Amino acid sequence: MSKIGDEVGISGGSEVLAKDANIADRLNSNVGGEVPLGLPAPNYNVPEGFTVKINSSGQATVSGPRGGEYLSTGYYSSDGKLIYKDKSGSYHTLDGGRNSVNAPPNYDSVPIHHICTNKCNVGANGQTAWSKEFQRFFDGSDLNINNATENLVAVAGHRGPHPQAYHQYVYGRLDQATEGLVPNTEAYKEAVTQTLNMIKTEAAIPGSPVNKWLTKR
Q1: What DSSP letter does each residue of the chain carry, written as one string?
Q2: What are the tens digits of pLDDT across the range 144-191?
Q3: Which domain of life is it from (predicted)?
Q4: Which among 75, 109, 149, 163 is most buried, taking Cβ atoms within 10 Å?
């Protein structure tokens, strides 16, 4: 099978701390009361001869050896396989071979979510202006917070705005991953992109703590 993405475990622990005092003061030491899931970075398992391209939207397009194209929907089958939509409007899973499935319930299009928000530039009522805080990770990685593929993921049932606990969680994960690293180096960029990829996986899994924050379920 062809594969994109490396399997990287997520360390457990319910406390997410930031070293910057102005952020740490706002962090709840038990963010959401949940332990991060030990999940792999995003993997698109497709049959031999198929190729995967990650779009700027954060969705994946899979091309078949005979010219067929399949767009990831962000929905999963009952056995946990990602569902794709082809150009004719039919739905399939590709993990382990191409298999037709029913359309996901209420599927029209899957909202695209920014892992690090690009819409919170002004703090209100004592809240943090999170976009400004996240920007340092993108400056240090030579990435654009608005349209970098690394910061985008399709999340079925996405509903905003998101709770402070979600932004605290993302900031804490990035802060931990880059601690002691020099910005604008390969090591720094790799730490940021791997962390974003791991959070993407959590975001796309229904029922995970991150997915619940993003869908308000």
Answers
A1: -B--S--------S----SSHHHHTT--TTGGG-PPP--PSP---B-TT-EEEE-TTS-EEEE-TTS-EEEEEEEE-TTSPEEEEETTS-EEE-TTS-EEEPPPTT-S-PPEEESS-SS--S--TT---HHHHHHHHHHTTT--TTT-GGGEEE-TT--SSPPHHHHHHHHHHHHHHHTTPPTTSHHHHHHHHHHHHHHHHHHHSTTSHHHHHHHT-
A2: 999 888 898 878 778 878 999 999 999 999 999 999 999 999 999 999
A3: Bacteria
A4: 75
pLDDT tens-digit readout, 116-146: 998 887 765 567 889 999 999 999 999 999 9
Residue appearing with tokens 């067929």: 68
Residues in the chain: 217
Q: If 0-12 CB within 10 Å is exposed, 13-18 middle and 19+ buried, where does residue 118 land?
A: middle
pTM: 0.56
| Residue 46: band (very low, low, confident or very high) from pLDDT cuts 50, 70, 90 | confident
Please provide the average confidence, as pLDDT, over all residues in the chain.
76
